[in-house]
Amino acid sequence: MKARPPAFTKFRDVQAELARSGAALFRDADGVESLVIRYPYAIEYIHSYAEDSPFFLGLAEGRLRGSRCTKQGCGCVYATPRSHCMECGSPTEWVDLPTAGKLHSWTTCHFGSEAFLKETPYNLGLVEFDGVNSLLLVRLKDARESDLYVGMPVEARFDPNPKYSVTDVWFVPK
Ligand SMILES: [Zn+2]
Q1: Spatial distance between the Cα atoms of 132 and 173, rounded to a whole number of angstroms
Q2: Ligand 1 geometric centre to CA of 125 (Å)
Q3: For the segment 127-172, what is each residue's pLDDT rounded down to a tens digit?
Q4: What distance in angstroms lies between residue 70's CA and the mean position of ligand 1's atoms?
Q5: Separation of 96 CA from ligand 1 center, angstroms?
Q6: Contact at 8 Å (CB) between 127 and 136?
Q7: 140, 104: one domain
Q8: Among the residues of 36-99, which ranges form H helices?
Q9: Total domain count for the chain?
Q10: Domain boundaries, position 94
Protein backbone atom coordinates (compact mmCIF):
# COMPACT_ATOMS: atom_id res chain seq x y z
CA MET A 1 0.00 0.00 0.00
CA LYS A 2 1.28 3.42 -0.88
CA ALA A 3 2.01 5.81 1.96
CA ARG A 4 -0.18 8.84 2.55
CA PRO A 5 1.28 12.12 1.31
CA PRO A 6 2.92 14.20 4.06
CA ALA A 7 0.75 16.75 5.88
CA PHE A 8 1.55 20.45 6.41
CA THR A 9 -0.13 23.29 8.24
CA LYS A 10 1.40 26.07 6.10
CA PHE A 11 0.23 26.32 2.52
CA ARG A 12 3.66 27.40 1.28
CA ASP A 13 4.96 24.04 2.56
CA VAL A 14 2.12 22.34 0.71
CA GLN A 15 3.18 24.17 -2.47
CA ALA A 16 6.80 23.09 -2.02
CA GLU A 17 5.68 19.48 -1.55
CA LEU A 18 3.43 19.70 -4.62
CA ALA A 19 6.36 20.90 -6.69
CA ARG A 20 8.44 18.01 -5.37
CA SER A 21 6.06 15.05 -5.34
CA GLY A 22 2.71 16.19 -6.73
CA ALA A 23 0.55 15.53 -3.65
CA ALA A 24 0.29 16.76 -0.08
CA LEU A 25 -2.20 17.03 2.76
CA PHE A 26 -3.11 20.44 4.14
CA ARG A 27 -4.13 20.27 7.79
CA ASP A 28 -6.15 23.29 8.89
CA ALA A 29 -6.40 24.80 12.39
CA ASP A 30 -9.22 22.38 13.28
CA GLY A 31 -7.12 19.38 12.25
CA VAL A 32 -9.14 18.73 9.09
CA GLU A 33 -6.93 17.24 6.36
CA SER A 34 -7.44 18.14 2.69
CA LEU A 35 -5.69 16.19 -0.02
CA VAL A 36 -4.09 18.65 -2.45
CA ILE A 37 -2.72 17.47 -5.78
CA ARG A 38 -0.63 19.04 -8.49
CA TYR A 39 -2.73 19.43 -11.63
CA PRO A 40 -1.00 21.62 -14.22
CA TYR A 41 -2.94 22.95 -17.17
CA ALA A 42 -2.51 25.83 -19.57
CA ILE A 43 -4.99 27.76 -21.65
CA GLU A 44 -4.73 30.84 -23.81
CA TYR A 45 -7.59 33.16 -23.06
CA ILE A 46 -8.38 36.06 -25.37
CA HIS A 47 -9.94 38.75 -23.26
CA SER A 48 -11.31 42.21 -24.06
CA TYR A 49 -11.20 44.94 -21.43
CA ALA A 50 -13.80 46.84 -23.45
CA GLU A 51 -14.76 50.05 -21.60
CA ASP A 52 -12.16 49.35 -18.89
CA SER A 53 -9.34 49.60 -21.49
CA PRO A 54 -8.27 53.17 -20.54
CA PHE A 55 -7.51 51.95 -17.02
CA PHE A 56 -5.00 49.36 -18.28
CA LEU A 57 -3.56 51.67 -20.96
CA GLY A 58 -3.09 54.23 -18.17
CA LEU A 59 -1.14 51.77 -16.02
CA ALA A 60 1.25 51.23 -18.92
CA GLU A 61 1.85 55.01 -18.94
CA GLY A 62 2.39 55.14 -15.18
CA ARG A 63 -1.04 56.68 -14.57
CA LEU A 64 -3.75 55.53 -12.22
CA ARG A 65 -7.11 56.31 -13.76
CA GLY A 66 -10.53 56.42 -12.15
CA SER A 67 -13.99 57.69 -12.94
CA ARG A 68 -15.69 60.97 -12.06
CA CYS A 69 -19.43 61.57 -12.19
CA THR A 70 -20.29 64.18 -14.84
CA LYS A 71 -23.40 65.50 -13.05
CA GLN A 72 -23.12 69.06 -11.72
CA GLY A 73 -23.30 69.02 -7.94
CA CYS A 74 -22.39 65.32 -7.64
CA GLY A 75 -18.93 64.72 -9.07
CA CYS A 76 -18.25 61.54 -7.09
CA VAL A 77 -14.84 60.09 -7.95
CA TYR A 78 -14.28 56.34 -8.03
CA ALA A 79 -10.89 54.71 -7.66
CA THR A 80 -12.19 51.57 -9.33
CA PRO A 81 -13.43 52.62 -12.76
CA ARG A 82 -17.15 52.41 -13.45
CA SER A 83 -19.24 53.69 -16.32
CA HIS A 84 -21.99 55.22 -14.17
CA CYS A 85 -22.12 56.98 -10.82
CA MET A 86 -23.17 54.80 -7.88
CA GLU A 87 -24.75 57.83 -6.18
CA CYS A 88 -26.84 59.36 -8.96
CA GLY A 89 -26.57 57.03 -11.96
CA SER A 90 -25.07 59.64 -14.31
CA PRO A 91 -22.33 58.71 -16.79
CA THR A 92 -18.74 59.16 -15.64
CA GLU A 93 -15.60 60.47 -17.31
CA TRP A 94 -12.01 59.30 -16.91
CA VAL A 95 -9.76 61.19 -14.48
CA ASP A 96 -6.22 60.70 -13.24
CA LEU A 97 -6.11 59.65 -9.60
CA PRO A 98 -3.35 60.62 -7.19
CA THR A 99 -0.56 58.04 -7.17
CA ALA A 100 -0.10 58.36 -3.41
CA GLY A 101 -2.60 57.76 -0.64
CA LYS A 102 -3.11 56.18 2.74
CA LEU A 103 -3.63 52.59 3.73
CA HIS A 104 -7.24 52.10 4.82
CA SER A 105 -7.04 48.37 5.56
CA TRP A 106 -5.29 45.24 4.36
CA THR A 107 -5.26 41.47 4.41
CA THR A 108 -2.56 38.87 3.87
CA CYS A 109 -3.38 36.37 1.11
CA HIS A 110 -2.03 32.86 1.55
CA PHE A 111 -3.50 31.76 -1.76
CA GLY A 112 -3.86 33.61 -5.02
CA SER A 113 -4.62 33.30 -8.68
CA GLU A 114 -1.91 32.13 -11.08
CA ALA A 115 -0.45 35.62 -11.56
CA PHE A 116 0.23 35.98 -7.83
CA LEU A 117 1.20 32.46 -6.76
CA LYS A 118 4.94 33.12 -6.94
CA GLU A 119 4.66 35.97 -4.43
CA THR A 120 2.22 34.22 -2.08
CA PRO A 121 1.75 35.05 0.73
CA TYR A 122 1.29 38.70 -0.24
CA ASN A 123 -0.48 41.69 1.24
CA LEU A 124 -3.54 43.16 -0.41
CA GLY A 125 -4.50 46.67 0.64
CA LEU A 126 -7.37 49.09 0.36
CA VAL A 127 -5.92 52.53 -0.41
CA GLU A 128 -7.75 55.81 0.17
CA PHE A 129 -6.96 59.00 -1.75
CA ASP A 130 -7.72 62.64 -1.04
CA GLY A 131 -10.68 63.75 -3.16
CA VAL A 132 -11.69 60.21 -4.12
CA ASN A 133 -14.90 58.66 -2.81
CA SER A 134 -14.01 54.97 -3.06
CA LEU A 135 -11.06 52.78 -2.14
CA LEU A 136 -8.62 51.03 -4.46
CA LEU A 137 -7.89 47.34 -3.90
CA VAL A 138 -4.24 46.78 -4.77
CA ARG A 139 -1.20 44.68 -3.87
CA LEU A 140 1.30 46.02 -1.35
CA LYS A 141 5.00 45.27 -1.77
CA ASP A 142 8.22 46.03 0.09
CA ALA A 143 6.51 45.77 3.47
CA ARG A 144 5.95 42.92 5.88
CA GLU A 145 2.49 42.54 7.36
CA SER A 146 3.88 43.62 10.74
CA ASP A 147 5.04 46.92 9.17
CA LEU A 148 1.56 47.89 7.98
CA TYR A 149 -0.80 50.19 9.87
CA VAL A 150 -4.04 52.05 9.18
CA GLY A 151 -3.23 55.47 7.72
CA MET A 152 0.23 54.43 6.46
CA PRO A 153 1.34 56.65 3.53
CA VAL A 154 1.74 54.53 0.41
CA GLU A 155 2.47 55.26 -3.23
CA ALA A 156 2.05 53.51 -6.55
CA ARG A 157 4.68 51.68 -8.53
CA PHE A 158 4.16 50.68 -12.14
CA ASP A 159 5.71 47.82 -14.05
CA PRO A 160 8.18 49.33 -16.56
CA ASN A 161 7.38 46.37 -18.83
CA PRO A 162 3.58 46.46 -18.73
CA LYS A 163 1.55 43.30 -19.30
CA TYR A 164 -1.76 45.23 -19.50
CA SER A 165 -2.89 43.44 -16.38
CA VAL A 166 -3.68 44.24 -12.75
CA THR A 167 -0.12 43.11 -12.03
CA ASP A 168 1.10 46.35 -13.70
CA VAL A 169 0.49 48.36 -10.49
CA TRP A 170 1.26 47.87 -6.82
CA PHE A 171 1.79 50.13 -3.85
CA VAL A 172 4.78 50.50 -1.51
CA PRO A 173 5.36 52.46 1.72
CA LYS A 174 6.03 56.11 0.93
ZN1 LIG B 1 -23.12 61.21 -9.46
Answers
A1: 20
A2: 26
A3: 999 999 999 999 999 999 999 999 999 999 999 999 999 999 999 9
A4: 7
A5: 17
A6: yes
A7: yes
A8: 53-60
A9: 2
A10: 50-173
